[in-house]
Amino acid sequence: MAENDHNPLLYPADISEILEEFGHLLAVYDKLKDRSSIFASYIRTNKRLEVKEHPIHGITGLVVTEKYDEAGYIERYCYTWRRLLPKQGIQTGHITSWGNDHHDAIWTPAAYRVTTEPHHHHYDPADRKKRRENYNVRTLRQAFTFVGAYIESGREYTAETIETLDSV
């Protein structure tokens, strides 16, 4: 893989590699509409990757958004692990998510500012507004690694979970 001079972590996801490495975590659920499947129309748009059922969180998915700059590098990303069934709103379906949308304007409340700005982690399943620093999940591979550990172990993800790839 070529070097990205301006940020080595923000390469576009190689879907073929992701599917090869994490394909054992994926599942297809008949009740979900195919139009939202990554296999239905992958054209660098919002997609959902359905993952195996979690014993506590239920049927979940990894909702992925990657926006690319003119050179093809990731300009904006959002990786959200959420409950898919039963269908719920953004807050009630939220388990955890990572993104790099900016929250550094002067009027931004202190509670939403983090030292890793713009990279942040919406860590609390009960309150999606809460944010903390994000040092470790900035690519789709890292998000899959994090979520995959919970899918494979069956452990519950909670707000008290320490966000490091080594801890899961």
Tell me the domain tally. 1
- The structural class is alpha+beta
Q: How much helix, percentage-wise, in residues?
A: 10-25%
Number of helices: 3
Shape: globular
User: What's the total count of β strands?
Assistant: 6
Biggest sheet overview: 6 strands, antiparallel
First-last Cα distance? 27 Å
The proportion of residues in beta strands is 15-25%
Strand order of the largest sheet: 1-2-3-4-5-6
Radius of gyration over all CA atoms, rounded = 16 Å
- The low-confidence parts are 1-6, 34-46
Q: Can you write the helix and strand succession as a string?
A: HEEEHEEEH
Mean pLDDT: 78
Give your account of this protein's structure.
With 168 residues, this protein is of the alpha+beta class. The protein has one domain. 15% of the residues lie in helices and 22% in strands. The protein contains 3 helices and 6 strands, in the order H-E-E-E-H-E-E-E-H. Strands 1-2-3-4-5-6 form a 6-stranded antiparallel beta sheet. The chain is globular, with a radius of gyration of 16 Å. 29% of the residues are buried.
